[in-house]
Amino acid sequence: MIELNQYKTLTFDCYGTLIDWENGILGVLKPLLLVHDTNLDDKEILKIFAEFEAELETGEYLKYREVLNRVVQKFGERFGFEPTTDELNSLADSIQYWLPFPDTVEALRALSQKFKLVIISNIDDDLFAFSAKHLQVEFDQIITAEQAKSYKPSLNNFRLAIQRINLPLEQILHIAASVYHDIVTAKSLGLSTVWVNRRADKNKTGATYPQISQPNLEVLDLKTLAAMSSPNPQ
């Protein structure tokens, strides 16, 4: 168990933690694949997405829009079809419509009363601007992959965030749903971590690679974390 009041800044992953990206991904890829006579279940689509995304993010830096375009292209290559230009753009174009989890906005509002909030996200600046409108809170810092020119789980993204936050590590708490992208690397740099296990009742990996690590705290949602920070947690 951790004492939340020892921290001054909470850093958040965005997609998968605050924004329901899996429903966003499936809302685009499932009908796209069906148009091309490819019928995959949700688990398989997300597994393949995770494979392609991780491969593209570990090579030479590409903007996230281009990463998503190439993810769609790779689906076409694997399943024998040639995506149209609109289809190639469809994942990135859909991000503006991806919505927060039901508990996200209220929890962020509550936490913002006590802590500075920071985003560390594998995203482009312009694409995050769409999501920021849905999140409805003011973030003290926003660190994107476009700014870092690298993608989590790279150490670089977290080092850039730590430099900008300019606080001792023991005053920073990182909160994320992806063990692969976030928890392992944050812990390796000495940050305390909270794993938001949003897939506790589903397949354990979803749209991220499977990975094992021991966070300082595991919660099922952000509502639970916000309640822990209140003077009289329920």
UniProtKB/TrEMBL annotation:
InterPro entries: 2-HAD, HAD-like_sf, HAD-SF_hydro_IA, HAD_sf, S-2-haloacid_dehalogenase. One of its GO terms (molecular function) is hydrolase activity, acting on acid halide bonds, in C-halide compounds. Keywords: Hydrolase. It comes from the Bacteria. Gene3D superfamilies: 1.10.150.750, HAD superfamily/HAD-like. This is Haloacid dehalogenase type II. It comes from Nostoc edaphicum CCNP1411.
